[in-house]
Amino acid sequence: MAIGASGSTGHSCRDAADALFGFLDRSLCPEVRDEVRVHFERCPPCVHLLDSYRKTISLCRRALSAPVPPETRGRLATRLRQMTANVPGSRSKSG
Amino acid sequence: MAPTDQTAPAATDQDLLSVARRGDYAAFEEIVRRYQDRVYRLGLGMTSQPAEAEEVVQDTFLSIFRGLASFRGDASLSSWIFRVAANASLMVLRRQRRKPHLSLEDTRPDYADDGGGRVRMPGAWVGEPDEMILSGELKGLIEAAITGLPEKYRLVLLLKDVEGLSNDEVAQTLGLTVPTVKARLHRSRLIVREQLDDYFNKR
Ligand SMILES: [Zn+2]
Predict the structure, then answer these.
(1) Are B172 and B111 in contact (CB under 8 A)?
(2) Interface probe, candidates B28, B118, B166, B185, chain A, greatest A C-beta count within 10 A
(3) How far is the CA of B132 from the centre of ligand 1 (A)?
(4) Which of A1, A8, B60, B178 has an alpha carbon within 20 to 30 A of B168's alpha carbon?
(5) In a domain, A61, yes or no
(6) Average pLDDT by consecutive 10-residue portion of chain B (203 residues)?
(7) Domain assignment of residue A10, given as a range
(8) Nearest by CB: B65 against A20, A65, A84
(9) What's the pTM?
């Protein structure tokens, strides 16, 4: 029998990794959630997995947070105005 | 035509939509202003090229404009825009024919072969994620890791983790079930995490 940091619960690191999404998503049933939490409390590699998984989410958001560059913004508005002018029947002519 | 007070910044998406549908170009431009950064980010995340992201924005809002009259309003404006933007990104990628991405076979965290299913010991990811220094190198690595994901995985990760949509919204936007969204998201995160872990371990 494998004795790991999981102690006597028999909950393996693979189970913990598979349950990670539901654990953070709060979609696990309470019993499983408690088991996973106990595992995460006792198993350093899984603590690292949990920690780094969380940080990955946040780092992705930060790394890809670029807004439209200002020069692009102006160009887009102009081009959209030209292109939509050619769409028949959809532009209000009142005014 | 002058913007009406219905197009003031406080207008809801629904207000803007109905005014734009009546042909008010100012309302359409307000929709563009409201969503262009998010569409651009999605385009940039999908294509990794600013010029192509710009194409995505242009194609998306042109489609939105063309579709205003026939939009039935059974989805929210944001959901409609993201769906159109996702398709526009895929079209731009088709036009540019991308390099092949990595296989999904190796997407679990590394397990040591001790039969216990243990993950390997950690490297250092020091600090809180909002405080971690996002060097050019790290930023480039994250972008490359995301670009390396298969398109349908990349879309889910960008919509959920970058744009902050809920699982339900991502599912509705992409026409997927929620379990499929969760599975793709989990796998995508694990792939990116693993590449970041390699980076932090080498330092
Ligand atoms: Zn473990």
Answers:
(1) no
(2) B118
(3) 25
(4) B60
(5) yes
(6) 53 91 93 95 94 95 93 86 97 77 46 41 64 82 94 96 95 95 96 92 76
(7) 5-84
(8) A84
(9) 0.81
| Contact status of A54 with chain B (Cβ, < 8 Å) | yes
Per the domain annotation, does A52 fall within a domain?
yes
Structure tokens at B73: 């309003």
- Residue A85 corresponds to which tokens in the numbers above? 């002018």
Give the pLDDT confidence of A29-72 residue by residue, as tens digits.
999 999 999 999 899 999 999 999 999 999 999 999 888 899 99
Q: What is the tally of structural domains in chain A?
A: 1
DSSP B122: P
A91 located within any domain:
no
Question: Which domains are seen in chain B, by residue range?
Answer: 13-95 (1.10.1740.10), 111-202 (1.10.10.10)
Task: Flag whether residue A48 sits within 8 Å of chain B, measured between CB atoms.
Answer: yes
Determine whether B147 is exposed, middle or buried from the number of CB atoms within 10 Å of its CB (0-12, 13-18, 19+): middle
Rounded to a whole number of angstroms, the distance from the CA of A34 to the nearest CA of chain B is 19
**Which chain B residues have a beta carbon less than 8 Å from that of A64?**
41, 44-45, 142-143, 146, 158, 162
The yes-or-no verdict on residue A10 having pLDDT over 80 is no
Respond yes or no on whether ipTM tops 0.85: no
Neighbours of B29 (CB within 10 A): 19
Q: Do A92 and B22 touch (CB under 8 A)?
A: yes
**Residue positions counted in chain A:** 95
Classify residue A93: in a domain, yes or no.
no
Q: Which residue from A minimizes the CA distance to B56?
A: A76
Distance CA A86, CA A2 (A): 70
Q: Which one of B21, B189, B203 makes the best mutation probe of the A interface by having the most chain A beta carbons within 10 Å? A: B189
Q: What is the spatial distance between Cα B44 and Cα B109, in angstroms, rounded to a whole number? A: 27
